[in-house]
Amino acid sequence: MGCRGCLLSLLASVASPLGGPPATVVVVTCSAHYTDFFENWLAWLERSGVAGAVGLVAIAEDESAAAYLEAWAAAPPPGWHAYRRAVAPPAAGAAPLGGALGFETRGFATLMARRAAYLAAELAALAADGAWAKDPASRLVFSDLDVVWLGAGQQKRAKFPTSKAPISAIFHSLGDPRPHLRSSGCDAWAQTQHREKGLLNPGFLALRPSPGAAKLLDAWAAALAGGPQRNLPAFNAAARGAAPAAAACALPPETFCSAKRTFNRPKWAADAPRGAVTAHANWIDGHDAKRAALARSGAWLAAGATPLLVPAR
């Protein structure tokens, strides 16, 4: 049955207590080395008001993270959407990866190579829910844990009286539903590397329940099946190979920003994000450097959080 089949079976065994997922379901992956980033990511979701409007699926990368995420899923805080699951694929039965997890390391490549199969399985499981699959607003979103969800890109949260309003600020605008994630011609939307290397970055990726999105994920998973490797080149190769049957579109870089537009700029601050809706620390290598960059900009909200396991320097 393979890894994807194992994950599909596991996903089927943990159905939502609500009987179905919300329109927006967000997937994150977490290893023992980045549980503090998971807590910071959750803190931003809660601060922006998105927590009550999205379902959340957290996928464990090792046995320590699996136990941690199961405890998280069992105790939802007030105000959070009830659709929240911890998923333990076969990889989660292993001990945490040793050594450093920097960009050039085998450990980093090992984690990245798993991602496409996770998302392909999750999209297939969600699409099996007929109501979710037929809803034109349905989206599966993947977010790296070093992506800060800033909400509306401004601090005037008093203007958003309901839990659905902040998610509208991220994915909608008044009178023009989902301007960044509209379905016309696109099966997937990714943060863009346009000004850097002309590439799409699947560290922030949205998918609609379409045959094209499934084809793209299957092609991406096949490209990563050979063993540890970085997933960004494989995603872009898969997007080119799957076209025109699958269309991957770029999100606006001034709104869904990389570190080059945010954390790497000394004067950038999360309290004055200058139109940014998400900020990704993707060009900052290593756990400690990423955390320091988020702290400098006021984007680290989980002050007391420590990782279960600190990766080797």
Automatic annotation (TrEMBL):
Keywords: Signal. One of its GO terms (cellular component) is Golgi apparatus. Residues 141-293 form the Nucleotide-diphospho-sugar transferase domain. GO terms for molecular function: glycosyltransferase activity. Residues 1-17 form the signal peptide. InterPro entries: Nucl-diP-sugar_transferase, UDP-D-xylose:L-fucose_XylT. It comes from the Eukaryota. PANTHER family: UDP-D-XYLOSE:L-FUCOSE ALPHA-1,3-D-XYLOSYLTRANSFERASE-RELATED. This is Nucleotide-diphospho-sugar transferase domain-containing protein.
